């Protein structure tokens, strides 16, 4: 499979490693830091506006290789591609249950475990060596950071960022576009557009303006 990455930074390099680990090829890295399209080491580099021509030219699928949840959503909205034009990248060293569902454009990093009947949305990031336990739901554009432990039946809303090494106990709900601090232990539901930190996690901020939250 040929892959076009939108974004050309550190996160994109990690995703490129995931792609090549599976024997697939990164044929383009598009980022608006480039003024025009050119080729380097057999890979196209250029602005995001070149995407539609390259998809056809290279018979490729797309991954939004940007860490910010809000920016990933903006780019998906801007490109207006069909869902099947996005690739799902699952590293060969991850473990995904046959009964789990992984959405379009989502990236599953090395060492990740996704257990039975979990559902992962579109354009999410499951980062290195985390665990998503049985019957969890992770929304679109969410990012679960390295080493996090999401126990059974947890529901994580769209755009949520779970920090590195955080734990969420069973059946808790993390509202959309919330942030859970690194190393936190979530023992209660977290309202949408909130930031919660600590052991146990406590809400320290709730964003009332949805537009500001999504654009952060």
In words, what does this structure look like?
With 216 residues, the protein is of the alpha/beta class. The protein has helices spanning 10-21, 51-58, 69-79, 210-214, and strands at 2-6, 25-30, 38-40, 43-46, 60-64, 89-90, 95-96, 101-102, 107-108, 113-114, 119-120, 125-126, 131-132, 137-138, 143-144, 149-150, 155-156, 161-162, 167-168, 173-174, 179-180, 185-186, 194-197, 202-206. It has four helices and 24 strands. It has two domains: 2-85, Rossmann fold; 89-206, 3 Solenoid (UDP N-Acetylglucosamine Acyltransferase, domain 1).
Secondary-structure blueprint:
Elements: E1 2-6, H1 10-21, E2 25-30, E3 38-40, E4 43-46, H2 51-58, E5 60-64, H3 69-79, E6 89-90, E7 95-96, E8 101-102, E9 107-108, E10 113-114, E11 119-120, E12 125-126, E13 131-132, E14 137-138, E15 143-144, E16 149-150, E17 155-156, E18 161-162, E19 167-168, E20 173-174, E21 179-180, E22 185-186, E23 194-197, E24 202-206, H4 210-214
Parallel strand pairs: 1-2, 1-5, 2-4, 6-9, 7-10, 8-11, 9-12, 10-13, 11-14, 12-15, 13-16, 14-17, 15-18, 16-19, 17-20, 18-21, 19-22, 21-23
Antiparallel strand pairs: 3-4, 23-24
Comma- or semicolon-separated keywords:
single chain, 4 helices, eight-stranded mixed sheet, disordered C terminus, alpha/beta, Rossmann fold, 31% strand, six-stranded parallel sheet, 2 domains, 216 residues, UDP N-Acetylglucosamine Acyltransferase, domain 1, 17% helix, globular
